[in-house]
Amino acid sequence: MKEKLERYKFFRILASIYEIKAIRLLIPLAVIALVYWEGQRELRQIHLARTFHELRLLPVGTVVGICLFSLFSVGVMSLYDYMIRMHFKLKVGWWNTFRYAWIANTFNNIIGFAGLTGAGLRTLLYKRSGIAPSLMASAVVFLSPVIITGLSIMSWAVLTGLFPATTMIREHRWLIFAVWGMALYLPLFILMQRSSLFARWFNKGEGRTPWSTVAVSLCASLLEWVCAGVTFWLIAASVLHDVTFQGVMGMYTVSAIAGILSMAPGGIGAFDLTVLLGIEHMGFPAERAMAVLVLFRLFYYVIPWLIGLIMAAFEFGSPAKRNLEKVETAIEIPLNAWQRLWRWPGQMRFLSDLGVWALGKLVLVSGLLLLLSAATPGLLYRLRLSEELLSMPIMRISHLLSVMIGFMLIILSRGISLRIRGAYLWTSGLLFAGAIFTFTKAFDFEEAIFLLIVALMLWISRARFYRSGALIEWRSAAVWYVLSAVIALAYYWIGAHVHHGWLRHLPTTERIHWMVGSNPYAASAVIGLAGAWILLTMLIVLRPSRKVAAPATPADLDRLRQYLQSHHGNLLTHMLFTGDKSFFWSADGEVLIPYARSRDKLVVLGDPLGPEKLVPDALGEFLQMADTYAMSVVFYQATPGYLPMYHEFGYRFFKLGEEALVHLDQFTLSGKKNTDLRTVRNRFEREGAVFEVVHPPFAPELLRELLAVSDDWMHGRREKGFSLGWFDERYLQEAPIAVLRETGGSIFAFASLAPAYDGGRTISIDLMRHRSQVPNGTMDYLFVQLLEWSKEQGYKIFNLGNAPLASVGETRSALREEKLAALVFQYGGHWYGFKGLRKYKSKFSPEWEPRFLAYPASVSLPVLTVDLVRLVSRRV
């Protein structure tokens, strides 16, 4: 049947949609579109200025009460974690459980992704307390169907009239199907929990879920949704005044069901539009409904999430990264007294990436808060007090500086996430200045306190900002330019549209019009944006990462020559004389790591040079240096012998291909399989071809003749670099060159040689060039002569070079990327003769030695491939 269905294009399309999970996108889009279609009239009635006016009318005591109860409501969600703690017998403390629950739930409310955010964070957090991920996976699966049972119970309250929503459902009949569907989930949940199938899969054969556990699950979920509904009612009662508890709870329940069906984070979109419909049916204007929504989103989602960010900044600590464990003493960042004080949860040594990410987002929120505070007029009594205590110029300058600081904090938030020391210093100063200016412009002490808290957080974590700088690509910078411009437009739009209706309340309208008129908002937006752009441009132009990968100087090359006189090299060492690599010296000059930069990656060519026992410590120092500039380290063409060492540093591997190594003591032209090679050699010798190996220094006349051959070979193509040599007179003077001359003495082919600097044991072929019109078999003859000459000179191994993607992805258990590479090797002859190159080199009976790409797990392999192509295609 499946084969028959696959013959029809329609079913193939459906299968493709299912495989890419497109249905997860279609459902929320369809629900939001349906609600928008029903509520478009209400949306057109919203006036932003009136909405902000409604928000400002709330008494401070009411706001504080709503905020405290909303925090309590979010805290109630921790009952889920206490439930799985009891059911799965998790050995986690009560306070740790509450902390983990708060972080996971608040992040899940904001980010969502169908509960994956909360599930992932719970797994990470509980792992810190020694709970196995497999056990947490079972707990998360157990918890997932529980969460909406409380909403299902409230749906029955709507259907029975306890929480009436009759008018709303009568006007929009599609809502009744959503309510009935959610209501029927309750009996389905109970049957599922008591089923033998659920017991076998999720209770690990310990029998059906006890009725007590089912009851606790229902109570925990019901309490969560009721507390959320009460929070919504408190806000609605404060803004709308004349509303009933039952009516608001019914409207909230129906709106929450629409939000759940949309599968959007926090039900955003569907929930909000349904609330607008419900409040409009109660007879209230749309701007007051929007004020209810803004307050609910702020107190139930944003403020708890900000607290969760602060908790995450202190909570997410991990031991030193595995790739730096061997040099832990060299890179350990000491903890100050404040950090030791905040270690009371237990094991925090220093902030992890998520912790610093949280600090970066707090700085971003601080910048946005400053702009929002500057864009909206202050409270009237505070403006009057400002007039009495402060002069107009001070208020005006404070307003303008708040805008500039807001834009700068938005730009610097990226530097905070990257742990850049300079960004920390700038941000700390700007946060303190922002707190002062936001206070002096209209006595907005709430914003000032928040900025000071963020500044304190940064100061507590000051030792975590150890990086000297980070690479900022122009493409990434362009995104920030555009983002800041969009924020500037939003700032102007909000500021220009909320000032109407405020001027009449001010005692000195004429003198304060500069703060609430549209033109001053445009001017401050332009000035603030210009300041942010200047700061961003300075960060790009003056970034210290430029010196991280400076090409080798003549002094560096001289030091390399002296080093190779007493230390062995490898097959790629000769490429270092091209001058496009940087040198990292370690272990008092005993270990050399050659590398080049490609975007935010430092690509090491081959393996480090030096005594193998010193290499691990040298790698640790190099990784620390790269981390100082927020860069990743990649090892290109790594050999099998060093893979265990890279593995200890947490690296992954991708097979690049195989190196063709001819053992010269086994090489011979005798035998039947070498008949073709003997025929080629005899033909060229009869035609008078002359093979010669010339040694440096080379005469200018010879180099000019070689250049002519090289230009003919290139046909205007661009030279490659990094792992390949190119025609450069200074570089060619470093090693012998094999040439083929015609009878008249002119050169028609040549190949430069690359010694391995291993005591005369190994030599490689480097540049291979010939004229466009040469006899067939020219390269065969050149290779044969080189092999025999190398054998006569006492070399043991001749390296014919790499066969890219050879023997990659041939087994069933190979990585997906390697299997794709195998297809490229098999069928990519149109772009590059992968199979032909390996087949050609095989005629010389080499021994094939694999070469690998070693890269950190955090690096995307497709992106890395593009960066490597750019690196090899570029030449200094």
From TrEMBL:
SUPFAM superfamilies: Acyl-CoA N-acyltransferases (Nat) (SSF55729). It catalyses: L-lysyl-tRNA(Lys) + a 1,2-diacyl-sn-glycero-3-phospho-(1'-sn-glycerol) = a 1,2-diacyl-sn-glycero-3-phospho-1'-(3'-O-L-lysyl)-sn-glycerol + tRNA(Lys). The keyword Cell membrane applies. Coiled coil: none annotated. Residues 562-855 form the Phosphatidylglycerol lysyltransferase C-terminal domain. It comes from the Bacteria. It is found in: Cell membrane. Its main location: membrane. Pfam families: LPG_synthase_C, LPG_synthase_TM. The chain crosses the membrane at residues 21-37, 57-80, 100-119, 139-162, 174-192, 212-236, 248-271, 291-314, 350-374, 394-412, 424-442, 448-465, 477-494, 521-542. Its EC number is 2.3.2.3. GO terms for molecular function: phosphatidylglycerol lysyltransferase activity. Keywords: Acyltransferase, Antibiotic resistance, Cell membrane, Lipid metabolism, Membrane, Transferase, Transmembrane, Transmembrane helix. It is a multi-pass membrane protein. PANTHER family: PHOSPHATIDYLGLYCEROL LYSYLTRANSFERASE. Catalyzes the transfer of a lysyl group from L-lysyl-tRNA(Lys) to membrane-bound phosphatidylglycerol (PG), which produces lysylphosphatidylglycerol (LPG), a major component of the bacterial membrane with a positive net charge. LPG synthesis contributes to bacterial virulence as it is involved in the resistance mechanism against cationic antimicrobial peptides (CAMP) produces by the host's immune system (defensins, cathelicidins) and by the competing microorganisms. Belongs to the LPG synthase family. This is Phosphatidylglycerol lysyltransferase.
